[in-house]
Specification:
The strands form two sheets. Strands 1, 2, 4, 5, 7, 8, 10, 11, 13, 15, 17, 18, 20 and 21 form a 14-stranded parallel sheet that branches. The chain has a seven-stranded parallel sheet with strand order 3-6-9-12-14-16-19, with no helix packed on it. It starts with a strand and ends with a strand. It is globular, with a radius of gyration of 14 Å. The protein contains no helices and 21 strands. By secondary structure, the chain is an all-beta fold.
């Protein structure tokens, strides 16, 4: 187990890292920061912090992991693109937030949070075969185009299962 007391538990600035079967616990900020590309996280547990995994690099993969943070994954920035989030479990306030990051794939995830997936100013993302449950917004899409949303299940008392604005 890797623990960060007030800051993050892990920062990756080098490309091509492979991290598997490790538990991370953070303090008040980001638990894990991925600012480089072509990294793979598999079978990890991330807990605590305001953001579980902050991704600003491209071509990163998060697979078969569990994230319990206020924001599970924050995928942002023009280079934060072409990432794959596959078969993960999220709990917290927001499961996945994508902002100005395009061509990402979110597939086979179980998201149990107030807001499931929040996509802003991001194009060409694929969101499929996910299970979302909560009370806020299941999937929110704003100022985005050419996103593919298919075969997702929405459970719970959502105010809106899918909320689309200017997209």
């Amino acid at each position: 187990k890797i623990t960060g007391s007030t800051g993050g538990a892990l920062t990756i600035n080098s490309p091509g890292c492979r991290i598997s079967n490790i538990s991370f616990e953070g303090g008040t900020g980001q638990v894990i920061s991925l600012s480089s590309s072509d990294n793979v996280f598999r079978g990890c547990t991330v807990q605590g912090g305001s953001t579980g995994i902050a991704i600003s690099g491209a071509n990163n993969t998060i697979q078969d992991s569990h994230v319990n943070s206020a924001i599970g994954i924050d995928l942002a920035g023009s280079t934060g693109s072409k990432c794959i989030i596959l078969n993960d479990t999220f709990s917290g306030d927001t499961g996945i937030r994508i902002n100005s990051a395009s061509n990402n794939t979110i597939k086979g995830c179980k998201i149990q949070s107030s807001t499931g997936i929040d996509i802003k100013s991001s194009d060409g993302n694929i969101i499929e075969n996910n299970s979302l449950s909560g009370i806020g917004f299941g999937l929110s899409l704003s100022s985005s185009k050419a996103n593919q949303i298919s075969n997702n299940g929405f459970l719970g008392a959502y105010m809106s299962g899918i909320d689309i604005a200017d997209s």
